[in-house]
Amino acid sequence: MADPQTEAPRKATMKIQEVRTIVTCPGRNFVLLKIITDEGVYGVGDGTLNGRELAVAKALEEHIAPLLIGRDPDQIEDTWQYLFRGTYWRGGPVLNSALAAVDLALWDIKGKRAGMPLYSLLGGKTRNGAVCYTHAHGESFEEVTDRAREFIDRGFKVVRCQSAIPGIANTYGTGKASGPHGESLPLVETWEPTPYLKTVPRLFEHLRNELGDEVELFHDVHERLTPIQAAQLAKALEPHRLIFLEDPLRPEHKESFRVIRQHSTTPIGMGELFTNKWECLPLITEQLIDYIRCDLAHIGGITEAKKIATVAECYHVQTAWHGPPDIAPITHAANVHLDLAIPNFGVQEWIEHPPEVAEVIPGGPTFEDGYLTVSDAPGLGCDINEDAAKKYPYQRGYLPTTRRADGAVHDW
Ligand code: KDG
Ligand code: MG
Hints:
alpha/beta; Enolase-like, domain 1; TIM Barrel; ten-stranded mixed β-sheet; 13 helices; 17% strand; binds 2-keto-3-deoxygluconate; binds magnesium ion
């Protein structure tokens, strides 16, 4: 434990000597962290927050790194509480992404010192692999179907499907990339609920007719609907048996989810915009969702995620941790270590990064026949090649923004 007056370790144990933030853009921006101890063992973390990367990097460099120097890297929970509560203000996405980077790096150090992969430290494997999903998208139903078929042929058992909506420019999820795009301002997407609510059930009818019953399919609403619109969509999708309907509502007002539950048996997944366990709690304890899908890189890492998973287990809620391409392979590895260890794992999102990413961050999860695994290397099994990272300097990039047809701002 730290000395209550000075926060210095009470006795001479291993100490944190250096905290290095690495911002790199091998195709997309990543905010990486290396925590180096006085015994030479180091851990790697990821705190990438898409579109606001440098806010996290600055928080790590200017506010958090000085607090870590001299601390015992073994006291993860104590350090977590110290950083989370020590701000007084608590953390939103910026501070909790920074906290995640620290948390992941500390678990990595603990695993390396113990000579154990993280899943062993978390209780050992409860399964051989984590079933995972990827994204099939396209301008037309046929294009989405063809992409989904390619993924099914590669072994995927679960596929997220998004198609363009007639009359809506730049529909979410249809491949108009976020991240660095060389433009000074974000891409603007449009949103209108009526064509969306008409099109999505037709898309899934088409997909079921073409792809059959065996593959698990689902759709990401991306928090855009009102409660009653979400209830209508969930009900309309019932015949197509989605594994879950993702993020139907804005994250702020948890009671809204009751409206969906009152009208539909389509399972619901929610959580990529949550930043702590308390936000998940009402949805879990009232059994208003079926899958909790926080992002380990934005909720303070493994320490917070394992607590959320345990509460979820009590209420028959499974996990579907957020695994988009905008978080580094280090967080993807953390996802899979946790998936392998917990009893209530549901499904894991995973998007293949381009090869430059593995050059900078080797050791992410590996995919085989629909399942993800991680290596048995101690810790997270990942590394950061700092020389390679230098070849890919940060490039400013924004997530798109959204407006209604009349010009009003809407959630992206
Ligand atoms: O940076 C934003 C993305 O992480 C998000 O749009 C991806 O919704 C997403 C998902 O489910 O992967
Ligand atoms: Mg999503």
